[in-house]
Amino acid sequence: MAHYAVGDIQGCYDQLAQLLDQVNFDQSKDTLYCVGDLVNRGPKSLKTLRLLKSLNNQCVSVLGNHDIHLLSMMYGVRDHRPHDTLKKIIDAPDAQEIADWLRHLPLLHTNESRKFLMCHAGIYPWWSLKQAKKYALDVEDIFKNEPDCISLLKHIYNNTPTKWSKDLGRIRQSRFTINAFTRMRFCSPNGHLNFSESGYEGKIRKNRIPWFMIPNESTQDYRIIFGHWSAVGLLNTPQHLGLDTGCVWGNEMTMAKIPKNINNKITLYTQRND
């Protein structure tokens, strides 16, 4: 009963399949955790989704920003962009089944037995864990209902509000929640999200603090597993496990074997995109 977490796949099916073979993944008893961004830019997004969906309960994934973009395209909210590689999914005979499956993926997954949290981009440092769970669930409940999901998707493409407030109102609160869980990289010291920069220098700068460098006492008993930030690459600390190592950009895909005690050594496996 091994547990594995894999970084952003983004349609790089071959590297994912090679990693699963490398660890002798057994669908009957092992579990695969995906940090989101399952699709787009890579060549085999449809094949990737069909594989993950076929794993049933042995695959636990969260939504990434590219997965939400796919849903928006499938429901006619957004158009195909020049660098998108999603048309095969939209035209597939099982497109509706795939959309239904994606809509039911969470923004935040909590594993109490192994003491880890998983989301695509990160957890907003000014939320308590209780708040993070609640706000994630609020959006997840909306997404599960197709008409409500479509209605919300029409309102999420905006960088504001940049700071959380309980007085934001339902739409703006949902937009902030989605942006935090799927797009966040830098924060300012007073809690504003910054979407203008995606590079990484490994240090704190004024108004450009990597979210994972901001202490959050309510999550300190967990390790947060995330992806999204290929410029950071592999981040393996007692509090964080960042797994986006930029496979879709010609680098490598990284998979981690999660120990029963998250404080124990994590075994890493990689597969290069040649």
Characterization of this structure:
By secondary structure, this protein is of the alpha/beta class. The protein has a single domain (3-150, 219-272), classed as 4-Layer Sandwich (Purple Acid Phosphatase, chain A, domain 2), CATH 3.60.21.10. 30% of the residues lie in helices and 16% in strands. It has eight helices and 13 strands. The protein has helices at 13-22, 45-54, 65-74, 87-90, 95-103, 129-144, 146-153, 170-183, and strands at 3-6, 31-34, 59-61, 109-111, 116-118, 186-187, 193-194, 209-210, 223-226, 235-236, 240-242, 252-257, 267-272. The strands form three sheets. The chain has a five-stranded mixed sheet with strand order 3-2-1-12-13, with helices on one face. A five-stranded mixed sheet has the order 4-5-9-11-10, with no helix packed on it. The two termini are 31 Å apart.
Task: Assign the structural class, choosing from mainly alpha, mainly beta, alpha/beta, alpha+beta, or little secondary structure.
Answer: alpha/beta
E-strand count? 13
**Overall mean pLDDT score?**
96
Q: Let me know the largest β-sheet.
A: 5 strands, mixed
Strand order of the largest sheet: 3-2-1-12-13
How many helices? 8
Helix content: 25-40%
Beta-strand content: 15-25%
| The level-1 CATH class | Alpha Beta
Uncertain segments are: none
Shape: globular
Give the secondary structure arrangement, pairings included:
Blueprint: E1 3-6, H1 13-22, E2 31-34, H2 45-54, E3 59-61, H3 65-74, H4 87-90, H5 95-103, E4 109-111, E5 116-118, H6 129-144, H7 146-153, H8 170-183, E6 186-187, E7 193-194, E8 209-210, E9 223-226, E10 235-236, E11 240-242, E12 252-257, E13 267-272
Parallel strand pairs: 1-2, 2-3, 5-9, 9-11
Antiparallel strand pairs: 1-12, 4-5, 6-7, 6-8, 10-11, 12-13
Helix pairs in contact: 3-5, 6-8
